[in-house]
Structure formats: C-alpha cells, structure tokens
Amino acid sequence: MRNIQNIELKPCDNPKYVKVNRMHYTQEGIDKTWEIAHVHDSVAILLYHQEHHTFVLVKQFRPAVYLSNGDGFTYELCAGICDKEGASLTQVAREEIHEECGFDVPLDAIEHVTSFYTAVGFAGAKQTLFFATVDESMRVSAGGGVDIEAIEVVELFVDDAHDFIFDETKVKTPGLMFAFEWFLGRDKY
Amino acid sequence: MRNIQNIELKPCDNPKYVKVNRMHYTQEGIDKTWEIAHVHDSVAILLYHQEHHTFVLVKQFRPAVYLSNGDGFTYELCAGICDKEGASLTQVAREEIHEECGFDVPLDAIEHVTSFYTAVGFAGAKQTLFFATVDESMRVSAGGGVDIEAIEVVELFVDDAHDFIFDETKVKTPGLMFAFEWFLGRDKY
To answer: Most C-beta atoms within 10 A of its C-beta, which of A55, A110, A163, B154?
Structure first.
C-alpha cells in the first residue's frame, strides 16, 4: 500500500480537473476579484458495521496531502463526487459504498444526516453526509475502488473513535471527525 | 452586507493564489498523475463568549460558494492562513481573533484542540483547530477584518448550536460543525 515511487511535481498549464476561474464582483461599492477552483459536489457516508462494532473507512494516497506532510495517506469516510447526470445523491452514495467498501446497501437504508461546504476559501463545493449500517450479509466484494483506484478498506473500532480524532499522526478530514461525533452523540438526539 | 453586484466569471490563465501543479508518481507499479492546487495551511478558532453564552462566528461572502449555491454567504469559525514566516500557529490564531472578531486574547489562553486536512482530493492543506473563551473585558474593536475584508461578526447561542448544525439553509464548514460537537461534548472528556 505504501509503494509510492518516482514522485515528480510539474507545472500544469492546462488543468483538466482543477479549473481555475477569476470572479470579478462589487461588494459594498468596492470592486474585488477572487480566484476559484471549480470542483464537483460530493457525498460522504459514515458506515457503521454492526457485527464488528466498527466504522468502515477508506485509506488512500492523496498526492496533495503528500506535498503537505510528506506521507500522503489519509483516513476518510467512503465518499465520491456527483458527476453523473440524473443520479440522486442517495444513489451516488449507494454506488460509492459498493465500489469503495464492497457492501450492497438498499437505498432506503441510507440515512441523510446533513451537509456542509468544504474549502470555502477557494473551491466551495457542497458535501452531503449520509449514514448507513452494514453487516456481512450485505458484503458483495472486498471493495477497493474501480479501475486503478488504490483504496484500502479499514475498520476502526467505535470505542477507539474518540482517541482517533485527537491522534494527529492520523491524517483525516473534518467531515469524518464531525460524523464520528454525531454518531457517538446520537443517543442525545 | 448582502450588497454584492456586477458578478462576472472569467478564465484565469495565470492564477496568483490558486496555483495548479500536476504530480506524476508510480503507485504499486502503475504510473499515475494528479492535479493539485497549492494552498496554505491555516488555523481556526472556536470562540466561546462566556458572558453571552454564545459562539462568536464570522459571516462572509465567499465567491466560490456563490457559484455553488447562488447565495455565497457562509458561517465559519474565526480563521486565517499561515503565511507569515516565523509566526507560531498560536500567534496566527491570536492575530485572527483580534482582526476578525475584535478580542485581545492572551497566547496562553488559546487552547490547541486537534487538526485535520481539508479538500484532500485536490488541495490537502492542514487546518489546526484552537479554542478560546472570550468576554467583553477582552474587547478591543468590533472586528470585521483588515483592509477591504467584509467580515460580519455574528454570535450564535450555544443552546442553538445543535439545531444550527442540521439547518442546511445555513452554509457552514465541517470544521465548525466538529468544533461545536467537541464543545458540546466536552463534559464527556
């Protein structure tokens, strides 16, 4: 999994995925400009494995994080971008659970939690958070993503989730941290 | 505050702030490339106003979010990028509390909570989360940012924070949502 080699960073004059535009606008009478990277909205799903009493997460190499911290492996919720015309958010969530983590979860078992915006300073995409409970009866594959995606499925004991949030050697997203806290506090709601 | 006019989006062939590079690397023997926007690491501070029993937040127009949802105003934690050589994270946090929210908080009253990585798919910057308690004795200005920053300081009753998290008409970041949950659950820890 850690077999990453031949890393080179090159200028990217004509990006295909991270397209940058400049917004010109007037706020309170003052002319301003702001650079914006266009990115897709996405879904993320907190998966609770009820037989193992674990959260099912994905671990993967993120080139941008490698540049930032020299390691590059992150722990994330199962997630994916919304780039398919006509697919509902819940359908996208269901497909990502299948592709990345290998569980076939019925649509009506995928619970909407809330949504938020990430990288508001320069990108501003919306991520909708879902929750689903899984068990081995729903298992259809080992997961791991499609094509050349190199996604490792990892399970974290729910009882260890709180310590994990504060273990800064583990690279993770704030969406994952919120989702853990939401789950751990569910009894309150 | 909502006085935003003359919005135009133009191509940005030579971005000054959102610079895109392409990483080339080999993973498990497979050659891959990935586009990366270089952004600064940052700090965010959850501010608890103990006399008002509120969280002190900032509300601002975010061009990237405007493109995403047609409104563009976000609720965020007091925050700022780390672009000053030699300044500690806590010093950056202290300056942002001063500039954005108008409180002069002693360095040793700014508590480190944890850290996380945002926009890991294409940017991967680290944000370190701090916490500070403020009161009116620390007030030195009305806040609002520096130069042409148009930041509105808003207070949210702690008792309303939970409902706020699930009110999807309010645009907010997952870091803010995690910080609220962390505060609300502090008694547990």
So the answer is: A55
Residues of A in contact with B125 (CB under 8 A): 68
ipTM: 0.94
Q: Specify whether the CB–CB gap between B78 and B45 falls below 8 A.
A: yes
CATH number of A42-115+123-184: 3.90.79.10
Q: A118-132 pLDDT, tens per residue?
A: 999 888 899 999 999
The token duo for A27 is 């706020």
Hey, where are the domains in chain A?
A: 42-115+123-184
Least CA distance to B79: which residue of chain A?
A121
Q: Are strands A42-49 and A78-81 parallel, antiparallel or unpaired?
A: antiparallel
Cβ–Cβ below 8 Å for B74 and A117: yes
pTM, two decimals, is 0.94
d(CA A41, CA B168): 15
Residue matched to tokens 């004509």:
A14
Strands (E), A102-181: 111-118, 125-134, 152-157
Structure tokens at B76: 């965020």
**β-strand A54-61 against A78-81: which pairing, if any?**
unpaired
Q: Which of B28, B35, B178 is nearest residue A16 as measured by Cβ atoms?
A: B35
Given a contact cutoff of 8 angstroms between Cβ atoms, the answer to whether A60 and A76 are in contact is: yes
In a 13 Å sphere around the CA of B103, the CA atoms on its Cβ side amount to 26
CA atoms within 13 A on the CB side of B125: 23
| Beta carbons of A9 and B21 less than 8 Å apart | yes
| Contact at CB, B64 and A182, closer than 8 angstroms | no
What is the least distance, in Å, from the CA of A52 to any CA of chain B? 24
**Contacts of residue B164, Cβ cutoff 8 Å, sequence gap at least 6:** B75, B156, B170, B172, B180
Distances (CA, A) of B53 to A45, B47, B56, B113, B179: 33, 10, 10, 20, 16
Q: Could you tell me which residues come within 8 angstroms of residue B129 by beta carbon, excluding any fewer than 6 positions away?
A: B43, B44, B45, B46, B77, B112, B113, B114, B115, B116, B175, B178, B179
Please tell me the distance in Å from A140's CA to the nearest CA on chain B: 24
